[in-house]
Specification:
Layout (H helix, E strand, L loop, with lengths): L1 H24 L2 H17 L1 H29 L4 H10 L1
Length: 89
């Protein structure tokens, strides 16, 4: 009976040592604080990222519109071609 109790005591002690070493290696409080700081930084920089995304989107739309204008100018089957001729007259 005493041997069984000693084995259980040693198992519990080893488990507690492993748990302590794990908590030392992976400090949960530090990790939670680091994640909270990262979330706060992301929320504070959200507007800046939104402005950058809007600028990129507007620039891409501008380039798309320019390409469409060029295609429309060089397309002989397009209605814009007739307007050009009328302007030249």
């Amino acid at each position: 009976m005493q041997q069984v109790l000693q084995n259980e005591y040693m198992k519990t002690r080893r488990f507690l040592e492993y748990a302590k070493n794990f908590l030392i290696r992976h400090n949960l409080l530090k990790e939670v604080l680091a994640q909270a700081v990262a979330i706060i930084k992301d929320t504070l920089s959200c507007r800046k990222k939104l402005k950058i995304a809007k600028y990129r989107l507007n620039y891409q739309m501008y380039k798309l519109n320019e390409m469409e204008k060029l295609i429309a100018e060089n397309n002989s089957h397009n209605f814009l071609q007739g307007k050009k001729i009328n302007h030249l007259r």
